[in-house]
Amino acid sequence: MRSTARLLALAALASAASILVSCDVGLPAGRTPHREGNRLDMGDQKKLKPQRKDLFLARATGLMEPQPGAVAEGEAPYPYAQNEADRAGAELVNPLEPTPAVLARGKFVYENFCIACHGAKGAGDGKVTALFPKPPSLMTQKVRDWPDGQLVHRPMRGQNSMPSYARQIDPREAWAVVLWIREMQKSEPVAPPPAAPAATTASAPPAPQAAPPAGGKS
Ligand code: HEC
Fold first, then answer.
1. Vertex 30 angle, CA 27 and 31, to 5°
2. For residue 175, how many other CB atoms are within 10 A of its CB?
3. Which of 180, 163, 34, 165 is nearest to 102 (CA)?
4. Alpha-carbon gap, residue 164 to 157, rounded angstroms
5. Residue nearest (by alpha carbon) to ligand 1 atom 40
6. In percent, how much of the chain has pLDDT > 90?
7. Pocket mutation for ligand 1, best pick of 117, 132, 168, 170 (most atoms within 8 Å of C-beta)
8. Of 116, 117, 101, nearest to 179 (Cα)?
9. What is the pLDDT of residue 56?
10. How open is the CA angle 91-94-96, to the nearest 5 degrees?
11. With b meaning 16 or more CB within 10 Å and e meaning fewer, what string describes 136-150?
12. Cβ(104) to ligand 1 under 6 A?
């Protein structure tokens, strides 16, 4: 009787201990806990992991990150700062011709990166304008009179509430979009200058610009 009781007590202790061991300290799921004193866990070694940025190899070889200022072959960095739209307009020449292939590419890029705000025909009535500031029409006489460089500057550098798309589209695609906008301007009527939106455009930027310094000071 006594020995049976001892055995039962031992078994209970053992299972309690095994529960304690299996719950173990907070290691991420899937990692095996180290045995005491043994730090040679293969799961913890430096190694390449699929889909992960590899800091080890990057530090050792510099292979993963381009060197600062590196430019891919056949690419020229866009040289104008955000406030240099006028200079871009005066100096840049569209390197593309409006061939059917270029226009098709421009249409594709427009319909993937611009249409949400600027609308199917550039009227500034894209779907997100229910929530996002409504852009002015791209069919105004002002935009028609802009040189291509002024137009390409907006996707490259953004303008006020419009973000830059330089990370999503490359300069040649931006030039193709410009040609697509020109193509739409041929068939769309001239839009009147945005009277009320111009007022909001004129007054909207100073407001956010004035707000952050005030917030920063207080
Ligand atoms: C997230 C919404 C959004 C997207 C996407 C967007 N734009 Fe804009 N765009 C705007 C807004 C808003 C303005 C007006 C900004 C301002 O207040 O000056 C603007 C202004 C412009 C202007 C200047 C118009 C003018 O009369 O001042 C051009 C040109 C332009 N966008 C081209 C593009 C092109 C090309 C694309 C696609 C590559 C694009 N935009 C994508 C929101 C957007």
1. 50
2. 26
3. 180
4. 5
5. 114
6. 50
7. 117
8. 101
9. 65
10. 160
11. bbbbbeebeebbbbb
12. no
Least Cα distance to 149 among 197, 201, 88 occurs for 88
Atom of ligand 1 nearest to the CA of 153: 29
Instruction: State the pLDDT at residue 15.
Output: 53
Q: Which of 32, 176, 166, 24 is nearest to 95 (CA)?
A: 176
Cα-Cα end-to-end distance for the chain = 79
pLDDT of residue 165: 94
- List of residues 6+ apart from 56 with CB closer than 8 A: 46
User: What pLDDT sits at residue 120?
Assistant: 97
Q: Is the CB of 15 under 6 A from ligand 1?
A: no
Q: Which two tokens stand for residue 146?
A: 């802009």
Phi first, then psi, for residue 22 (nearest 5°) are -70, -30
| Cα separation, 32 vs 62, whole angstroms | 32
Q: Ligand 1, atom 23: nearest CA belongs to which residue?
A: 154
Tell me what pLDDT residue 202 has.
44
Q: Are 120 and 187 in contact (CB under 8 A)?
A: no
- Contact in structure between 194 and 138 (CB atoms under 8 Å): no
Output the pLDDT for position 19. Answer: 47
* Weakly modelled stretches of the chain, pLDDT under 50: 1, 17-23, 197-218
Report how far residue 88's alpha carbon sits from residue 178's, in angstroms, rounded to the nearest whole number. 14
Structure tokens at 153: 């500057």
Question: For 75-84, how does the pLDDT look when each residue is reduced to its tens digit (9 = 90+)?
Answer: 777 889 999 9
